[in-house]
Design brief:
The complex is a heterodimer of chains A (about 150) and B (about 1150). Helices cover about 35% and strands about 15% of the residues of chain A. Chain A has about 150 residues and is an alpha+beta fold. Chain A is globular. Chain B is of the alpha/beta class. Chain B has a seven-stranded parallel β-sheet with strand order 14-15-13-16-17-12-18. The longest helix of chain B is centred in the first third of the chain and has 29 residues. The chains are: A alpha+beta (about 150), B alpha/beta (about 1150). The interface between A and B is medium-sized, with 13 and 15 residues. Chain A: InterPro entries: UBC, UBQ-conjugating_AS, UBQ-conjugating_enzyme/RWD. Chain A: Its EC number is 2.3.2.23. Chain A: Keywords: ATP-binding, Nucleotide-binding, Transferase, Ubl conjugation pathway. Chain A: Belongs to the ubiquitin-conjugating enzyme family.
């Protein structure tokens, strides 16, 4: 199936006008599959970390949202052990007016503002709620351990 | 060989049989041989003519013909001793005997001796009277019982093909006098050798040395005393040649075909094999030939029923060349055609078969004839005769149902098959071999236009036809039905035969069995013809130039006082063809009969083509019809009579009906039929292609000196189409249907296409002038350079709702069809199946059509009205589907309810890319109820996507719930010149989705038109649809788009149509003309348009092509683009395939009764539904 005009345009724009702290590069053999890197927002527990994600555009994109998942281990109440992300715009609140760029920005924002009230990783959310400082420390440690480029 | 009793002197002189006392002496002069004077009934013993004395005995050979043995001696006078040799006899042979028999005069003693019983005096008297004092005839009459019918009413029993008896004379009185006898006959010898052939015979006696090689035998026809009981089939067929049949039908069955051969003393030795005897007997009976036999082989000792071989020398008799007085059946006025074969026709057929067989046997080939190879031709002729035979046998059955009424519709059925395209092409080929070197004629000065060279040529041709000038070429062309045969110069033994100086050849018409010594010239009495130029070559203009250029004397004189007339007009007046007792001459007037839609066009073209004041034209239609034509056009009023009267077929028909109801009082009506016009022109003359139709018959009755028909398609799909034209033109003899049938229909039906088409070609050739658009002049220039034409098919995708309706109907139609196929009731359910196909096609245009009441009428036209209405009533499912569809369309547009601000914002957004598909700008910019923009399809897809996932559709931008009815398409009026320059930027309006886009096709059309208007704001286009109700649905969207449109359909009056055409032609702005395919398919000139939109396909593309040619015709100056709207994956797409295969013949719609066509159509429907 030929690549829809929209995907081509989005890809071109991601290359031409990259967003700071975010990169998305399509695979050469599958233009619907992107390697994504998101820099942890400053003044967040993830600062300094570079998180790898994979992003896949399904056939019915943009009617359906892209499928996206963390590859880098991260300690975050809205991301589970498998890297799946709990974010409304990736689910019910998806709209075809959203784009790869906007979704990645949303994820970056999610790193800066974890939401333990709508958890995906129940244990992480629990520790976050019980002892936020300890949780932040764990997150920082994980970032150092897994996300900081060596 | 009809012997006109009232014929001219030469024949009469030979009719000497009356003087019984004189038998011997009459033979003595060679120059007036009595060869032809035998009565037909006794012609059985035509003696071989004395040509080669070696082969015949020196003594009398003549033994009388039909006489049974005992009588022989009682007729000594018949033994001719030494007749002078005929002209042909080689002088060297010395002692020629010319035993040409002559009839014995009637004499009681002899008679009774013959019949072997005594006869009552009154019977004798009767016989004497009936036989014309011819003894042999009398004997035959007595023996076969025909005299009994004489008794009752001798005159009425006149034979169909009398020879020269008393009854013949009676017959002659009421039939057309025979054509003058060709003078060539005078120098024709009594008989002339044409060839020899071998035959088998079988002996009837036994003995030795009866017959040896080289023996000469006489070949005789003999009637046996007691006619054989009904003989075998073969004899029944061919044995009817005996004159006896002419009087009594019962007697006809008892005829024999026995041909005997006798030795020198008159003893019968044997008979010819039946196969040969069948036709040899005919030739002898009808006095065409004499035969003379030579034994080739015979067993030394003969036993009865031994086979012997003879060689027969055949000589054509002089009598064979006497005109038979073919009398043209006068079917002109009655319109009644002979259904059964008359005895005359039967006689003719026998003769024809016999001649063909003869030429086959002696292997004489025509030296000149028509193209088909002679052999095939002969075979075909025999087949045709056989077919006539079997037809005749079938007749009684069918006749029972048909009755005799010629107008019975079932007559149409046996009107022949349709022509295949390639056959049509072949047909036209000859007529189209237009010679560019033919002379030209300049039109009269009063003609205002300039003619193209080819038009001047046809003007020359037409003037020639009207004045009946033959050009040289035609002078020498042989009558198509005749063949030329050279007289052999050597006989079978290679001896040189004497030649007759003036007669190197003779002519045979194998179709009628006529023989002639004179060159049969192609006759041409019709003072008119068929102008069959393809559409767009200016047929109208050519006719108008003829009207200007060739006028009657009266007209010229009448006008001369007013102004000088060019010398071309000083033409001799031709006598009227028509009887004058009831019609008055209208020497100045040409009557033009045209379809209603063309009347105005004719009038305006007539005006344009004439210098001011040189031509008075008058429309004879509607209110104008009250005029007293009789007074207006009569010779007395010549100075003020209209030059051209234009009327419609409808008027002709209605006046004809009136007159018919007044039992044919032509003058009383004072209308069209009270006049004998100078000229009549039928435009679009294929309107009368059905000879049974009332219109056609009415047209036949129009009286005029010059008769013309104009048509681009002289043959629509059957050869009979042409017949009707020929009949109107009164071309002898083709306007006689039985003649036509014999020579064209029958061969064609018996699959002898080559011959039938050949004949048609020769009928056409002198009558037709036909040029086609793709003809090239010798310089390689096209006749008429038309700008190019492009046809593009636009695929239309149905919307979901439309597709649902379509699928529903499709499934139903398919189910019904195959259920019927299974049940074997397809033919019965034909109308309902057809109705469903029609609904399917309509649903491709607009689902609402399926429900529309108006279409009922259209369905009726298609012969499919039956259950459409009823079938729909119980269609609850469909009903709801359509309601769902119409729900989105019924709403009135409330597009102007928005503030300028919102509109401005929306307008600006339009140039942005679509947030969903990233198209830039958006395709079919559409906004939601919350004013967010996207492409229409993206928006609809998204809503559908959400619904499919059981989500409430929400706006992609603000996540407001979207009501699918609250979608508005943004219409930018940048294509509309009226609003484009007002204010800043183009005006936009919002249209609720569905409204104005009521169907996919309509949307596509409007989009096409918008685009067109953007490119070219003043262009004009034509939109064709076969559904007038669909045209109605096109109107509101056009109005909304602010496009000016006009409409032309069948329901409009002539005046209204003319007004519409004028408006369209004169319009200087973007204009769309909506035309129904049926009303606008023919004739109209719409060259001011440059674009054609075909909204729906018709069964045959030819009909569409004709519609397209309304625009792409002479006078068109620009390239024409044609767009055909075809719904993807639908019955329409499959119709295109059917069109390609040319299988579906659209015009057969009017002939639903024809089973065969239905079967073919069923096949097509099967394909449509597969």
């Amino acid at each position: 199936m030929a690549l829809p005009k929209r995907i081509i345009k989005e890809t071109e724009r991601l290359m031409a006008e990259p967003v700071s702290g975010i990169s998305a590069v399509p695979h050469e053999d599958n233009l619907r599959y992107f390697d994504v890197e998101i820099h942890g927002p400053s003044s967040s527990p993830y600062e300094g970390g570079v998180f790898k994600l994979e992003l896949f555009l399904p056939d019915d994109y943009p009617m359906a949202p892209p499928k996206i998942r963390f590859l880098t281990k991260i300690f975050h109440p809205n991301v589970d052990k498998l890297g799946r992300i709990c974010l409304d715009v990736l689910k019910n609140n998806w709209s075809p007016a959203l784009q790869i760029r906007t979704i990645l920005l949303s994820i970056q924002a999610l790193l800066g503002a974890p939401n333990p009230d709508d958890p995906l990783a129940a244990d992480v959310a629990k520790s976050w709620k019980e002892d936020e400082q300890a949780a932040i420390a764990t997150a920082k440690a994980w970032t150092q351990q897994y996300a900081v480029p060596k | 060989m009809d012997f006109p009793g009232s014929g001219e002197p030469p024949i009469k002189r030979r009719r000497f049989f009356a003087d019984a006392a004189n038998h011997e002496t009459t033979h003595n002069s060679g120059d007036t041989p009595p060869s032809a004077s035998l009565s037909p009934s006794t012609a059985t013993a035509r003696l071989p003519h004395d040509i080669d004395a070696d082969t015949r005995p020196k003594t009398n050979l003549t033994g009388s013909s039909s006489l049974p043995h005992p009588a022989k001696s009682s007729l000594p006078q018949r033994h001719v001793k030494a007749a002078a040799g005929p002209v042909l006899a080689p002088p060297s042979e010395g002692n020629p005997r010319n035993p040409v028999p002559k009839p014995a005069a009637f004499d009681q003693g002899t008679f009774e001796a013959f019949v072997g019983e005594s006869v009552k005096p009154e019977v004798l008297a009767l016989l004497r009277e009936g036989c014309g004092n011819d003894l042999e005839r009398a004997i035959n009459m007595y023996l076969d019982g025909t005299w009994k019918s004489l008794k009752r009413k001798a005159p009425a029993a006149s034979p169909a093909r009398p020879s020269f008896s008393a009854t013949a004379r009676l017959k002659q009185e009421d039939s057309i006098p025979p054509p003058a006898q060709p003078s060539a006959l005078g120098s024709m010898p009594d008989s002339r050798y044409v060839g020899a052939f071998g035959v088998e015979g079988w002996t009837t006696r036994s003995g030795s040395n009866l017959l040896r090689h080289g023996d000469v035998v006489k070949i005789e026809r003999q009637k046996i005393q007691i006619p054989k009981p009904t003989p075998q089939k073969g004899q029944a067929k061919l044995g009817v040649a005996q004159p006896t049949f002419r009087v009594s039908a019962a007697a006809a069955k008892r005829v024999d075909v026995i041909v005997r051969f006798t030795d020198g003393t008159g003893r019968e030795i044997g008979r010819l094999a039946k196969d040969t005897a069948n036709w040899v007997s005919t030739l002898m009976d009808q006095k065409i030939c004499t035969f003379e036999g030579t034994c080739v082989y015979a067993p030394e000792k003969l036993r009865t029923n031994d086979t012997v071989f003879l060689q027969l020398r055949c000589s054509l008799l002089r009598s064979a060349f006497f005109p038979r007085g073919f009398h043209v059946a006068d079917n002109r006025t009655t319109g009644r055609f002979e259904e059964t074969e008359s005895s005359e026709e039967k006689d003719l057929r026998l003769r024809q078969v016999a001649l063909v067989r003869l030429f086959q046997e002696i292997n004489l080939l025509p030296t000149r004839g028509n193209a088909a190879s002679a052999k095939n031709q002969r075979q075909g002729l025999l087949d045709a005769a056989e077919m006539a035979e079997s037809k005749e046998q079938d007749k009684p059955k069918s006749q029972g149902q048909d009755g005799a009424a010629a107008s019975s519709p079932s007559d149409d059925n046996d009107d022949g098959q349709e022509l295949e395209q390639d056959q049509l092409d072949a047909l036209y080929k000859k007529a189209q071999s237009f010679d560019f070197s033919t002379p030209e004629a300049e039109p009269a000065e009063s003609f205002a236009l300039t003619l193209r060279p080819y038009q001047k040529q046809s003007l020359h041709w037409m003037i020639g036809k009207e004045k009946n000038l033959r050009n040289e070429e035609r002078e020498t062309s042989m009558h198509p039905l005749w063949e030329e045969y050279a007289w052999p110069t050597k006989d079978q033994d290679d001896k040189v035969l004497p030649t007759v100086a003036e007669h190197p050849a003779f002519y045979v018409n194998p179709y009628s069995g006529d023989l002639s010594l004179q060159f049969p010239r192609q006759g041409q009495h019709c003072l008119g013809g068929i102008l069959a130029d393809e559409m767009g070559l200016g047929k109208t203009i050519q006719m108008l130039s003829l009207i200007h250029t060739h006028k009657s004397d009266t007209a010229v004189e009448a006008r001369q006082s007013n102004r000088p007339v060019s010398s071309v007009n000083q033409l001799p007046r031709l006598p009227s063809i028509q009887g004058r007792d009831t019609v008055t001459d209208a020497p100045c007037t040409t009557l033009v009969v045209a379809p209603m839609s063309l009347l105005a066009q004719w009038q305006s073209e007539a005006e344009n083509a004439s210098r001011e004041g040189t031509l008075r034209s008058m429309l004879y239609y509607g209110n104008e019809k009250n005029a007293d034509l009789l007074a207006l056009c009569s010779e007395a009023n010549a100075a003020n009579a209209p030059d051209v009267i234009i009327t419609s077929y409808g008027v002709v028909l209605s006046e004809f009906t009136q007159i018919a109801s007044k039992s044919g009082d032509r003058a009383g009506n004072r209308g069209l039929f009270s006049l004998n016009f100078f000229r009549v022109i039928l435009d679009e003359a294929h309107s009368i292609k059905n000879r049974q139709s009332k219109t056609a018959r009415a047209c036949y009755e129009i009286a005029a000196e010059h008769r013309w028909v104009l048509t681009g398609t002289p043959i629509v799909n059957k050869l009979e189409d042409l017949f009707s034209l020929v009949r109107f033109l009164r071309v002898e003899p083709w306007n006689n249907f039985s003649f036509w049938r014999t020579f064209i229909t029958v061969p064609f039906e018996s699959k002898d296409y080559m011959r039938a088409l050949d004949v048609v070609q020769t009928v056409l050739e002198p009558l037709v002038m036909r040029r086609t658009k793709d003809m090239k002049t010798p310089d390689g220039e096209p006749l008429v350079a038309l700008p190019p034409k492009q046809i593009e098919i636009l695929d239309i995708e149905l919307s979901k709702a439309e597709r649902d309706v379509y699928d529903y109907i499709f499934t139903r139609a398919k189910r019904a069809f195959f259920a019927n196929v299974e049940a074997g009731t397809v033919m019965k359910a034909f109308t309902s199946i057809f109705a469903q196909i029609l609904r399917l096609r309509q649903s491709c245009c607009h689902p609402i059509l399926v429900r529309n009441q108006e279409i009922v009428a259209e369905e009726e036209e298609a012969g499919a009205a039956a259950d459409a209405a009823a079938g729909l009533a119980d269609d609850m499912d469909l009903q709801s589907l359509i309601e769902r569809f119409t729900a989105t369309t019924d709403d009135a547009s409330d597009s102007n309810a928005f503030g300028a601000h919102v509109l401005g914002q929306i307008r600006d957004e339009a140039v942005n890319e679509c947030p969903i598909c990233a198209e830039e700008p958006m395709v079919d910019h559409t906004v939601t109820g919350c004013w967010h923009s996207a492409c229409k399809n993206c928006l609809l897809d998204y809503i559908e996507h959400q619904s499919d996932h059981h989500e409430v559709p929400r706006c992609f931008q603000c996540r407001e719930v979207i009501n699918s009815r609250d979608l508005f398409e943004v219409v930018r009026h940048d294509d509309d010149p009226d609003t484009a320059n007002v204010g800043q930027g183009p005006r936009i309006t919002l249209q609720r989705l569905g409204v104005g886009n009521s169907s996919a096709k309509i949307v596509a059309l409007i989009n096409q038109l918008r685009e067109l208007r953007r490119e070219n704001p003043t262009i004009k286009s034509v939109v064709f649809s076969q559904f007038t109700s669909f045209l109605s649905l096109l109107e509101p969207p056009l109005t909304r788009a602010n496009m000016q449109f006009l409409r032309l359909d069948g329901s409009m009056s002539q005046k209204a149509r003319a007004a519409v055409l004028d408006d369209f032609r004169e319009s200087k702005r973007f204009t769309v003309l909506l035309i129904s395919l049926k009303a606008g398919g023919v004739g109209l000139n719409l060259t001011s348009a440059k674009r054609v939109y075909m909204m729906d396909p018709w069964w045959s593309f030819a009909i569409e092509a004709q519609a397209i040619d309304r625009v792409h015709r002479m006078g068109q100056e620009d390239e024409v683009k044609v767009y055909r709207f075809i719904v993807k994956d639908s019955v329409e797409q499959r119709m295109l395939k059917v069109q390609d295969r040319k299988k579906f013949i659209a015009t057969s719609l009017g002939m639903m009764s024809d089973e065969e066509k239905r079967i073919q159509r069923i096949e097509d429907i099967r394909e449509l539904l597969s």
